[in-house]
Hints:
Order of helices and strands: HEEEHEE
Shape: globular
Oligomer: single chain
Amino acid sequence: MSCLFCKIIEGTIPSTTLYQDELCYAFADIDPKAPVHILIAPREHIASMAEAGRTDSALLGHLMWAAARIARANNLDKGYRVVVNTGPDGGQSVDHLHVHLLGGRAMAWPPG
C-alpha cells in the first residue's frame, strides 16, 4: 500500500513510537505545532473521518481513549487539544484517519 501512515505503522518508514496497541499506533509529528504534538492512527486503513462507518465506532472511541492515556503519560495536566482534520478544507494532508494530540502550551480559540 502506498499510504504514508500505513508504512509508518508497519515499520517501513521509521518513526518515534510513543504508544501502540492492537488497534492504534502513536508517533511524534515531524512538523510539531505545539511542544507536544503526537499523531494517533488506527492500524486499520481508513482514509478519513468521512470514510468511517458505523462499524468503526468502537475504534473511534478507542482513539479518543488512547489520546487521553497518552496525554496523562505526557503530563498534560493543564489541558490539551484533540483534533481530527477531515478532507482538504479541514486541513487533512495524509489520507489515513488520525488524531492530533497537542499540548504543552495554552491553545487559542478559534483554532484556524
